[in-house]
Amino acid sequence: MLWQGKQQALAAYASDGERAHPTLALLHKSLAPQLAEYLARGERKLMLFLKQVAARQVVFNGQAQAFLNLNTPDDCRHWLQEKGIAND
Q1: What's the pLDDT tens digit per position in 28-48?
Q2: Angle CA(45)–CA(8)–CA(59) in degrees, nearest 5?
Q3: So what's the pLDDT on residue 39?
Q4: What residue ranges define each of the domains in the chain, with the CATH number in brackets?
Q5: CA angle 67, 68, 69 (to 5 degrees)
Q6: pTM score > 0.70 for this model?
Q7: Between vectors from CA 12 to CA 7 and to CA 14, what angle results, nearest 5°?
Q8: Are 51 and 10 spatial neighbours (Cβ–Cβ below 8 Å)?
Q9: Of the candidates 52, 62, 56, 54, the residue with the CA atom closest to the CA atom of residue 25
């Protein structure tokens, strides 16, 4: 869906309709030099780079759970418990 939603844009990123998820993105290889320059300047804000290259937001309506962040072992255990999956 991200590929289809990008249309003619050189870059696209996912959104759940409420929040942007710029780490889930497609970038055309022609943007590599621009990205390299951006990083060489010490910049690290991905959303800012995506705005600079006119990236297209692709909304995944009704799929907020697909973008759940599991950052710690406790997050993972909690998610497994909610799903009723054994955590051995």
Answers
A1: 999 999 999 999 999 999 999
A2: 60
A3: 98
A4: 2-83 (3.90.550.10)
A5: 115
A6: yes
A7: 115
A8: no
A9: 56
What pLDDT was estimated at residue 88? 64
CA dihedral in degrees (16, 46, 73, 69; nearest 10)? 0
Q: CA-to-CA distance for 19 and 39, rounded, in angstroms?
A: 24
Pairing of strands 20-27, 11-15: antiparallel
Q: How many CB atoms lie within 10 A of CB 21?
A: 17
What distances in angstroms separate CA 58 from CA 12, 16, 38, 55, 62, one per listed residue?
7, 8, 23, 9, 13
**Tokens encoding 64:** 């907020």
Distance CA 12, CA 26 (A): 5
* Segments in the chain below pLDDT 50: none
